[in-house]
Write a structure and sequence with these properties.
Strand order of the largest sheet: 1-2-3-4-5-6-7-8
Shape: globular
CATH superfamily: Divalent-metal-dependent TIM barrel enzymes
Structural class: alpha/beta
Number of strands: 8
Distance between the termini: 21 Å
Largest sheet: 8 strands, parallel, barrel
Number of helices: 9
CATH topology: TIM Barrel
Length: 281
Protein backbone atom coordinates (compact mmCIF):
# COMPACT_ATOMS: atom_id res chain seq x y z
CA UNK A 1 0.00 0.00 0.00
CA UNK A 2 1.04 3.61 -0.52
CA UNK A 3 3.12 5.40 2.09
CA UNK A 4 2.71 8.84 3.58
CA UNK A 5 4.93 11.52 2.10
CA UNK A 6 6.47 12.72 5.31
CA UNK A 7 6.14 12.65 9.10
CA UNK A 8 2.72 13.92 10.11
CA UNK A 9 1.63 14.40 6.50
CA UNK A 10 -1.81 13.16 5.43
CA UNK A 11 -1.66 9.88 3.56
CA UNK A 12 -2.18 10.24 -0.16
CA UNK A 13 -4.20 7.47 -1.77
CA UNK A 14 -2.90 6.49 -5.18
CA UNK A 15 -4.52 4.61 -8.06
CA UNK A 16 -2.92 2.99 -11.11
CA UNK A 17 -4.71 4.13 -14.27
CA UNK A 18 -5.15 1.45 -16.92
CA UNK A 19 -3.53 3.61 -19.60
CA UNK A 20 -0.21 3.35 -17.74
CA UNK A 21 -0.15 -0.35 -18.62
CA UNK A 22 -2.82 -0.43 -21.30
CA UNK A 23 -1.63 -3.73 -22.76
CA UNK A 24 -2.33 -5.47 -19.43
CA UNK A 25 -5.47 -7.55 -19.18
CA UNK A 26 -7.59 -6.86 -16.07
CA UNK A 27 -5.89 -9.52 -13.94
CA UNK A 28 -2.41 -8.40 -14.97
CA UNK A 29 -3.47 -4.82 -14.25
CA UNK A 30 -4.43 -5.76 -10.69
CA UNK A 31 -1.10 -7.52 -10.28
CA UNK A 32 0.70 -4.41 -11.59
CA UNK A 33 -1.13 -2.20 -9.11
CA UNK A 34 -0.20 -4.59 -6.32
CA UNK A 35 3.45 -4.65 -7.39
CA UNK A 36 3.52 -0.85 -7.32
CA UNK A 37 1.98 -0.52 -3.87
CA UNK A 38 -1.09 1.26 -5.19
CA UNK A 39 -4.30 1.44 -3.19
CA UNK A 40 -6.62 1.31 -6.20
CA UNK A 41 -6.73 1.01 -9.94
CA UNK A 42 -8.70 2.20 -12.92
CA UNK A 43 -10.10 -0.42 -15.28
CA UNK A 44 -11.00 0.14 -18.91
CA UNK A 45 -14.22 -1.72 -19.70
CA UNK A 46 -15.49 0.52 -22.51
CA UNK A 47 -13.55 1.13 -25.73
CA UNK A 48 -13.33 4.94 -26.04
CA UNK A 49 -13.58 4.83 -29.82
CA UNK A 50 -14.81 2.10 -32.20
CA UNK A 51 -11.23 1.61 -33.43
CA UNK A 52 -9.94 0.88 -29.89
CA UNK A 53 -9.66 -2.76 -28.88
CA UNK A 54 -10.02 -3.98 -25.31
CA UNK A 55 -10.53 -7.33 -23.65
CA UNK A 56 -14.32 -7.50 -23.18
CA UNK A 57 -15.34 -7.33 -19.53
CA UNK A 58 -18.99 -6.31 -19.70
CA UNK A 59 -21.02 -9.51 -20.12
CA UNK A 60 -17.98 -11.76 -19.56
CA UNK A 61 -19.16 -13.56 -16.42
CA UNK A 62 -16.11 -15.80 -16.07
CA UNK A 63 -13.70 -12.87 -16.28
CA UNK A 64 -15.77 -10.74 -13.90
CA UNK A 65 -15.62 -13.50 -11.30
CA UNK A 66 -11.85 -13.79 -11.70
CA UNK A 67 -11.48 -10.01 -11.29
CA UNK A 68 -13.64 -10.10 -8.15
CA UNK A 69 -11.52 -12.92 -6.75
CA UNK A 70 -8.23 -11.16 -7.50
CA UNK A 71 -9.48 -7.95 -5.91
CA UNK A 72 -10.42 -9.86 -2.75
CA UNK A 73 -7.05 -11.60 -2.67
CA UNK A 74 -5.07 -8.37 -3.04
CA UNK A 75 -7.24 -6.02 -1.03
CA UNK A 76 -7.22 -3.54 -3.90
CA UNK A 77 -10.33 -1.79 -5.14
CA UNK A 78 -11.37 -0.19 -8.40
CA UNK A 79 -11.52 3.59 -8.31
CA UNK A 80 -12.98 4.11 -11.76
CA UNK A 81 -14.10 2.28 -14.85
CA UNK A 82 -13.56 3.90 -18.22
CA UNK A 83 -13.99 5.38 -20.74
CA UNK A 84 -17.35 6.70 -21.94
CA UNK A 85 -17.00 9.28 -24.68
CA UNK A 86 -20.08 11.43 -25.12
CA UNK A 87 -20.72 11.91 -28.83
CA UNK A 88 -23.65 12.61 -31.11
CA UNK A 89 -24.25 8.84 -31.23
CA UNK A 90 -24.32 8.25 -27.45
CA UNK A 91 -27.13 5.85 -26.53
CA UNK A 92 -27.83 5.78 -22.81
CA UNK A 93 -29.45 2.34 -22.82
CA UNK A 94 -26.16 0.84 -24.01
CA UNK A 95 -24.38 2.24 -20.96
CA UNK A 96 -26.57 0.57 -18.35
CA UNK A 97 -24.60 -2.73 -18.56
CA UNK A 98 -21.41 -0.68 -18.06
CA UNK A 99 -22.83 0.84 -14.90
CA UNK A 100 -24.01 -2.55 -13.69
CA UNK A 101 -20.56 -4.03 -14.22
CA UNK A 102 -18.89 -1.06 -12.56
CA UNK A 103 -21.11 -1.42 -9.51
CA UNK A 104 -20.46 -5.14 -9.29
CA UNK A 105 -16.71 -4.56 -9.36
CA UNK A 106 -16.97 -1.89 -6.67
CA UNK A 107 -16.09 1.10 -8.84
CA UNK A 108 -17.12 4.47 -7.44
CA UNK A 109 -16.49 6.56 -10.56
CA UNK A 110 -16.93 6.48 -14.33
CA UNK A 111 -14.39 8.34 -16.45
CA UNK A 112 -16.24 10.35 -19.10
CA UNK A 113 -15.03 12.50 -22.00
CA UNK A 114 -16.98 15.13 -23.89
CA UNK A 115 -16.44 14.76 -27.62
CA UNK A 116 -19.64 16.21 -29.06
CA UNK A 117 -19.43 19.52 -30.97
CA UNK A 118 -22.97 20.32 -29.80
CA UNK A 119 -22.41 21.45 -26.22
CA UNK A 120 -26.10 21.53 -25.38
CA UNK A 121 -26.50 17.92 -26.47
CA UNK A 122 -23.33 16.91 -24.63
CA UNK A 123 -24.63 18.55 -21.44
CA UNK A 124 -27.98 16.81 -21.81
CA UNK A 125 -26.30 13.43 -22.32
CA UNK A 126 -23.97 14.03 -19.39
CA UNK A 127 -26.93 14.91 -17.16
CA UNK A 128 -28.72 11.73 -18.25
CA UNK A 129 -25.59 9.71 -17.55
CA UNK A 130 -25.27 11.23 -14.07
CA UNK A 131 -28.92 10.43 -13.39
CA UNK A 132 -28.54 6.86 -14.63
CA UNK A 133 -25.33 6.29 -12.65
CA UNK A 134 -26.63 7.54 -9.31
CA UNK A 135 -28.59 4.39 -8.32
CA UNK A 136 -25.43 2.36 -8.96
CA UNK A 137 -23.38 4.47 -6.56
CA UNK A 138 -21.19 5.66 -9.42
CA UNK A 139 -20.19 9.25 -10.11
CA UNK A 140 -19.32 10.26 -13.70
CA UNK A 141 -16.15 12.34 -13.88
CA UNK A 142 -15.84 14.61 -16.92
CA UNK A 143 -12.25 14.76 -18.14
CA UNK A 144 -11.05 17.66 -20.26
CA UNK A 145 -8.80 16.57 -23.15
CA UNK A 146 -7.34 19.21 -25.48
CA UNK A 147 -7.78 17.12 -28.62
CA UNK A 148 -11.47 16.50 -27.84
CA UNK A 149 -14.45 18.85 -28.02
CA UNK A 150 -14.48 19.48 -24.26
CA UNK A 151 -10.87 20.50 -24.31
CA UNK A 152 -10.32 23.14 -21.62
CA UNK A 153 -11.11 23.60 -17.95
CA UNK A 154 -13.52 26.39 -18.89
CA UNK A 155 -15.39 24.11 -21.30
CA UNK A 156 -15.58 21.31 -18.72
CA UNK A 157 -16.90 23.66 -16.03
CA UNK A 158 -19.44 25.06 -18.47
CA UNK A 159 -20.68 21.61 -19.49
CA UNK A 160 -21.00 20.40 -15.89
CA UNK A 161 -22.84 23.59 -14.98
CA UNK A 162 -25.24 23.17 -17.91
CA UNK A 163 -25.85 19.54 -16.94
CA UNK A 164 -26.87 20.76 -13.50
CA UNK A 165 -26.59 17.42 -11.71
CA UNK A 166 -25.16 16.90 -8.23
CA UNK A 167 -23.75 13.48 -9.22
CA UNK A 168 -21.15 15.01 -11.54
CA UNK A 169 -17.43 15.50 -11.16
CA UNK A 170 -14.58 17.09 -13.06
CA UNK A 171 -11.42 15.09 -13.68
CA UNK A 172 -8.21 17.10 -13.92
CA UNK A 173 -5.35 15.37 -15.74
CA UNK A 174 -2.15 17.36 -15.19
CA UNK A 175 -0.95 16.80 -18.76
CA UNK A 176 -4.25 17.76 -20.37
CA UNK A 177 -4.63 20.82 -18.16
CA UNK A 178 -1.27 22.25 -19.18
CA UNK A 179 -1.44 21.19 -22.83
CA UNK A 180 -4.85 22.89 -23.12
CA UNK A 181 -3.35 26.18 -21.98
CA UNK A 182 -4.74 25.89 -18.46
CA UNK A 183 -2.93 26.83 -15.27
CA UNK A 184 -2.96 25.60 -11.67
CA UNK A 185 -4.58 28.88 -10.66
CA UNK A 186 -7.58 28.05 -12.86
CA UNK A 187 -8.40 25.16 -10.50
CA UNK A 188 -8.86 27.33 -7.45
CA UNK A 189 -12.48 28.02 -6.67
CA UNK A 190 -13.84 24.78 -8.18
CA UNK A 191 -16.30 23.18 -5.79
CA UNK A 192 -14.28 20.47 -3.96
CA UNK A 193 -17.32 18.19 -4.22
CA UNK A 194 -16.59 17.99 -7.96
CA UNK A 195 -12.96 16.95 -7.44
CA UNK A 196 -12.93 13.40 -6.07
CA UNK A 197 -9.68 12.45 -7.78
CA UNK A 198 -7.22 13.74 -10.35
CA UNK A 199 -4.62 12.23 -12.67
CA UNK A 200 -0.91 12.97 -12.50
CA UNK A 201 2.17 12.25 -14.57
CA UNK A 202 5.16 14.15 -15.88
CA UNK A 203 5.94 15.27 -19.42
CA UNK A 204 8.33 17.40 -21.41
CA UNK A 205 8.21 21.16 -21.47
CA UNK A 206 7.22 21.70 -25.11
CA UNK A 207 3.62 21.33 -26.21
CA UNK A 208 3.35 18.97 -29.20
CA UNK A 209 2.00 20.65 -32.31
CA UNK A 210 -1.26 19.33 -33.69
CA UNK A 211 -3.98 16.95 -32.59
CA UNK A 212 -2.19 13.77 -33.60
CA UNK A 213 0.97 14.72 -31.72
CA UNK A 214 -1.01 15.67 -28.60
CA UNK A 215 -2.81 12.33 -28.71
CA UNK A 216 0.45 10.41 -29.24
CA UNK A 217 2.06 12.09 -26.23
CA UNK A 218 -0.96 11.47 -24.02
CA UNK A 219 -1.28 7.82 -24.97
CA UNK A 220 2.37 6.78 -24.93
CA UNK A 221 4.98 9.40 -24.17
CA UNK A 222 4.48 10.60 -20.62
CA UNK A 223 6.91 10.20 -17.71
CA UNK A 224 6.48 8.86 -14.20
CA UNK A 225 5.81 11.53 -11.55
CA UNK A 226 9.36 12.05 -10.24
CA UNK A 227 11.08 11.98 -13.65
CA UNK A 228 13.92 14.51 -13.91
CA UNK A 229 12.79 15.12 -17.50
CA UNK A 230 9.40 16.34 -16.32
CA UNK A 231 8.39 19.98 -16.68
CA UNK A 232 4.73 19.95 -15.61
CA UNK A 233 4.02 22.05 -12.48
CA UNK A 234 2.70 19.09 -10.52
CA UNK A 235 3.28 20.60 -7.10
CA UNK A 236 1.41 23.77 -8.04
CA UNK A 237 -1.45 21.74 -9.50
CA UNK A 238 -1.80 19.67 -6.33
CA UNK A 239 -1.58 22.80 -4.18
CA UNK A 240 -4.62 24.14 -6.05
CA UNK A 241 -6.65 20.95 -5.50
CA UNK A 242 -8.21 19.55 -2.31
CA UNK A 243 -5.48 18.19 0.00
CA UNK A 244 -7.13 14.78 0.32
CA UNK A 245 -7.77 14.27 -3.39
CA UNK A 246 -7.05 10.76 -4.69
CA UNK A 247 -4.19 10.65 -7.18
CA UNK A 248 -4.68 8.50 -10.25
CA UNK A 249 -1.33 7.95 -11.95
CA UNK A 250 -1.79 7.93 -15.72
CA UNK A 251 1.70 7.74 -17.16
CA UNK A 252 2.21 5.51 -20.21
CA UNK A 253 5.96 5.80 -20.66
CA UNK A 254 7.69 4.87 -23.92
CA UNK A 255 10.96 4.24 -22.11
CA UNK A 256 9.48 1.29 -20.21
CA UNK A 257 6.94 0.07 -22.77
CA UNK A 258 8.79 -3.21 -23.34
CA UNK A 259 8.77 -4.23 -19.69
CA UNK A 260 6.17 -6.61 -18.20
CA UNK A 261 3.13 -4.82 -16.71
CA UNK A 262 4.04 -5.78 -13.14
CA UNK A 263 7.50 -4.24 -13.49
CA UNK A 264 6.06 -1.06 -14.97
CA UNK A 265 3.58 -0.96 -12.09
CA UNK A 266 6.43 -1.36 -9.60
CA UNK A 267 8.50 1.40 -11.18
CA UNK A 268 5.53 3.73 -11.47
CA UNK A 269 4.53 3.19 -7.85
CA UNK A 270 8.08 3.77 -6.62
CA UNK A 271 8.34 6.94 -8.68
CA UNK A 272 5.00 8.19 -7.38
CA UNK A 273 6.05 7.72 -3.76
CA UNK A 274 9.36 9.45 -4.41
CA UNK A 275 7.44 12.41 -5.85
CA UNK A 276 5.08 12.53 -2.89
CA UNK A 277 7.97 12.41 -0.46
CA UNK A 278 9.58 15.32 -2.29
CA UNK A 279 6.51 17.47 -1.63
CA UNK A 280 7.29 17.59 2.07
CA UNK A 281 11.06 17.77 1.67
Amino acid sequence: MAETEGPGAPRRRISLAHLTVLDADPLALIDAAMAGGFDMLGLRIVAPMPTDRILPVVGNEALIRRIESRLRDTGLRILDVEAVWLTAETAMDRLIPVLETGQRLGASHLLTVGNDPDEARAAENFARLCEAAQPFGIKPMLELIPYCQTGTIEAALRLVSRAGHANAGILIDALHLIRSGGTPEALRGIDPARLDYCQICQAGGERPSGTDALRAEARGNRFYPDSPKGRLPLKDILDALPPDIILGVEAPCAEYAGLPPAERGRLCGSSTRAFLESLSG
